[in-house]
Amino acid sequence: MAASCPLPATQDLSTLYMKLQGLVRFLKEALPISNAHTVDFYTESVWEQLVALPPERVLMVLRRSAADMRPLVECERSAGFTDFPKIFCETSQKLVNVEAFALTAKYYSMKNLGISTPFEKLLVALQVNQKQKTAGNVKSDEFMNMKKSHEVQVMSELINGLAGYCGIKQVIDVGSGKGYLSSFLSLKYGLKVYGIDSSNTNTHGAEKRNRKLKKHWKVYHTPSKLDANGLTLKMSNERKVQDDIQYEEDNEGMCHRSPTNQEMMSTSDVVPDFSNPVTVHFGKQMENLHVYSHQEETLYFESPFSLIDFLPINAIEPSLQMPNRKMSEANKERRKKTSKSSELNIYSPLTSFITADSELRDVIKDLEDCLVVGLHTCGDLAPNTLRIFTSKSEVRSVCSVGCCYHLLSEEFESPKKECTQEKWGFPMCHYLKEERWCCGRNSRMSACLALERVAVGQGLSTESLFYRAVLQSIVKDCYGITKCCHLIRLLDYQYFCKNDQHIGKIYSKSSSFLDYVRKSLKKLGLDESKLPEKTIMDYYEKYKPRMNELEAFNMLKVILASCVETLILLDRLCYLKEQEDIAWSALVKLFDPVKSPRCYAVIALKKQQ
What we know:
Helices cover 47% and strands 9% of the residues.
């Protein structure tokens, strides 16, 4: 390794196993709550089956527990978690002690279990004697939204530190999507990045997006005055900005006079409308040029030269070259340096379906010692990223933030789906494999809930869940549908899988319960004329007094969500600790959980060769 500073101490495998065993004991009794679907809440009498307490008491205790954001004190950490208090009835398996339930769930959350390594300590160790190389004053929020900017900025700093610590320059971004992280790593830190995504749409979309950036860059790439050091001086007033844009329009007309080119690129494609309220803000920012795109997320950039480094070399279109004109010697020298920088700091988007058995050399011809990273890699891609790290000698380090736990494949899920795969997304570690542990899809789906957002009132409303559960009763009683198909089960769960074309947003578009039912039945292809208004409202009145049951039960599921996520992350960490050639591994909380709920990274480095 290039650095010799010791990395922060982490818990050993035996300690992690002890905590994993305790968590498993708790979840064995609690998983029925987590696996129950709120859609079936009334049709399957879920509250009566699983809870032996009045909903008012459950709500009181859970709200009090949620309001207490303090970590567990030392006596709570050490008292009684090897011998669980009586939380569930031994005969009926119903919940009987909600206070003990809340305390145990809090103990086994990532925040309190004590298995996470502080991000700040890791950065200090990684950045000792490290020289940061940047390609200029680049800010992530200049070309991506706030959430993505937060994630990219934090993770790229960590990745740069890992690369410097290991003495490597090549980074492989698995599941790179639009290439935000890859682009930023290449632009700001001078790393050679390959972004691999299984979707041609994403790969080509990244290139198309970069071509759009190049087009916007061309519009604003006017000759600017240079100071003594050859740096571009800032434009000082709105009139100067508008004059330069008009100058570019004139050059555009000179270079593209043919009818064909005029049809391909209209003025509205490249020149902002200054009558638009959004672009009025354009002229008020005197120190930056702002370009707004209605099809992409808001794009911002300070200097046309900084974008050249950002673009992949194959994203530059010949038709978008600047018109020939006289340039100063300083400007020519600046362009030469920019061109050399572009050749060295390349982001290359590639299309390939990555599995645990993928041969990286088949995808990347100049593969060398590298760092594999993944920002919110979906489903099995996160565990497969870890397996690639452990099995490929060229991969010296890994930094993986997973998401979409509901899409993980489970080896011991029952009934087992027909599948020929040998490597499953869960479990990974020996202990859970020996236990033949299975979470279940509903439990993994609940782990996708953002506990921190629910705590501050940003979760799903109880009313939306209530509407959906009552609709289920209507569909069962009036249409004879007892087992819900995929479409109806996902009717109001757009927050789990936003790309699913079947998922609707009916609740947010409905003015009342009656309107909601009418629209839902129509979407499901059921004859809505079969139900008069009175029948629909009778169902509403029947279940309205029991809405508090659904609210309390959903709070139980949300509290368990953090425990299920802890189990999944702890499984991955234990898997890494089981490998003999790994020098260091840890779970690190990277992001603000309110901005980015999936905030924990699995990080590891191999022993020095």
